[in-house]
Amino acid sequence: MSSKGLLIVVSGPSGAGKGTICKELLNQNPQIKVSISATTRQPRNGEIKGINYFFIDKNKFELMIKNDDFLEYATVYDNYYGTPKEYVMKNLEDGNDVLLEIDIVGALQIKDRFKDAVFIFILPPSLEELKNRIVGRGTESLADIEKRHGSAISEIEQFIKYDYAVINEDVLKAVGDIEAIIRAEKCRVLRRTEEIQSKF
Amino acid sequence: MSSKGLLIVVSGPSGAGKGTICKELLNQNPQIKVSISATTRQPRNGEIKGINYFFIDKNKFELMIKNDDFLEYATVYDNYYGTPKEYVMKNLEDGNDVLLEIDIVGALQIKDRFKDAVFIFILPPSLEELKNRIVGRGTESLADIEKRHGSAISEIEQFIKYDYAVINEDVLKAVGDIEAIIRAEKCRVLRRTEEIQSKF
User: Fold this and answer.
1) pLDDT top residue among A121 and A103
2) Which parts of the sequence bind ATP (chains A, B) (predicted)?
3) Do B102 and B92 have their domain in common?
4) Which residue, A73, A124, B145, B151, has fewest beta-carbon neighbours within 10 Å?
């Protein structure tokens, strides 16, 4: 009997560094599968189909919505974004852990339908540091920076709906926290009941 | 603000190897404090006061019961055994993690009064292996072995009341599981709410 895999949902406010953390987590744990989102927006320069996104057209996306083929989806600036269900479910059934790096709204949609998933919220070390990071990108106007910083603050309030909070003071430490969470979750009695009852 | 420590309660059936695992856990993590039980029984050869047990007389023990000075206590063969509350509470308040290796009845008493503790159940890899280990001690008669094996089987059913189940296939792996559980528990949103709300 192979135990089912773990669905690991990582999200957090813009600027918390969840992308960097997830990349390093996958580098160190290549056995973890990563879910790729689907979108109807056009590929940007350098984006590769099946690596960054699955690029599909609007009709296809709406048919998939109708068929309940998404774990979650949302509309952003007239484009759809969503997490195709099939890849995630197949891997979990095969006993693979699946990582989903996703925004807060999407994560909460998944929480409603997928009680077994583990929800991890990434936080910046402080509000000052969050602002420094947003400024540091150097790609945004002052107004955009203020807007992004303001929305990050209101996003942070959502941490309370998650199972775990990881503070990104140091990328490797944050990755270590997530690895510990995954290992600990596999020991949870609620996940091992069947295995133990079949053994003893 | 220093966060409060974690009370880690480790128990499991006789022969699962919880003593060996706890010893190795403490070797590798000398910052973890270990709670010492009090008993009214006489010290055995080689037992040291304050290391193996606190040896106290019956009057003192009963006064402590009356004063609600135990986290849990029990009577075994006319002797009292109990976990003094003061040492545990003081260390938790100081932010130290405290390990309690304790039998299943005692662990469940603590669970009733101490919702914040983490309850870890140690299991043998199989019933056959459990029997081998009990036989391997070589100190017991066949009848005693059968009795101990039988009671271990009924003790195993209690795993369902714990938070985590660690299977002792390998001592170092089991210690690694417990270390991951401790690290993950410190990231639980329920334990970090105050810290995060004071920061953001």
Assistant:
1) A121
2) 12-19
3) no
4) B151
Domain identity same for B61 and B44? yes
pLDDT tens digits along B58-110: 999 999 999 999 999 999 888 999 999 999 999 999 999 999 999 898 999 99
Strand A98-101 and strand A33-34: the pairing is parallel
What range defines the domain where residue B66 resides? 36-96
The pLDDT value recorded for residue B1 is: 37
pLDDT, tens digit, for every residue of A130-155?
888 878 767 678 888 888 888 888 89
**Nearest residue on chain B to A156, alpha-carbon basis:** B200
Looking at the structure, do residues B73 and B3 belong to the same domain, yes or no? no
A88: distance to nearest CA of chain B, Å?
24
**Alpha-carbon distance A96 to nearest alpha carbon in chain B (angstroms):** 19
Q: Are B187 and A166 in contact (CB < 8 Å)?
A: yes
Residues of A in contact with B122 (CB under 8 A): none
Is A5 annotated to bind a ligand? Reply is no
Chain A: which residues have CB within 8 Å of chain B? Answer: 120-121, 123, 126-127, 153, 156, 159-160, 162-166, 176-177, 179-181, 183-185, 187-189, 192-193, 196, 199-200
Q: Which of A52, A77, A96 is the last residue of a domain?
A: A96
Count of pairs with CB atoms under 8 A, one residue in A, one in B = 84
B200–A165: do the CB atoms touch at under 8 Å?
A: no
Residue ranges of chain B with pLDDT lower than 70? 1-3, 139
**Predicted ipTM?**
0.91
Nearest CA-CA distance, residue A76 and chain B, Å: 27
Q: Do A103 and A143 sit in the same domain of this protein?
A: yes
Where among B62, B77, B96 does a domain terminate? B96
Domain count, chain A: 2
Say if residue B53 is in the same domain as residue B82. Answer: yes
> Which of A161, A164, A190 should one mutate to test binding to chain B, selecting the residue with the greatest count of B CBs within 10 A?
A164
